What we know:
It is a single chain. The chain has 68 residues and is of the alpha+beta class. 21% of the residues lie in helices and 18% in strands. The protein is built from 2 helices and 3 strands. The protein has a 3-stranded mixed β-sheet with strand order 1-2-3, with helices on one face. Strand 1 and strand 2 form a beta hairpin. It is globular. It starts with 18 loop residues before the first strand and ends in a 13-residue tail after the last helix.
Amino acid sequence: GELERIVIGDVDVVAANVLVAGGQCFVVRGHPAAVEVMRRAGEKVVEVDLEDFVRADGGPTCLVAPIP
């Protein structure tokens, strides 16, 4: 597939941790500017409350494990 670079502000760096599944982008809730940039680029964005994971320096991609 084709890759597209989407630039977000430094204050929203946590929102750069994006899990893409089922044609949707799952991002940490609380970064409306980053979400708006992604939506303007045509992405379907789902905001997820992951405050506890962010405090531990985690994000959406940390919650995924491959299934053999």
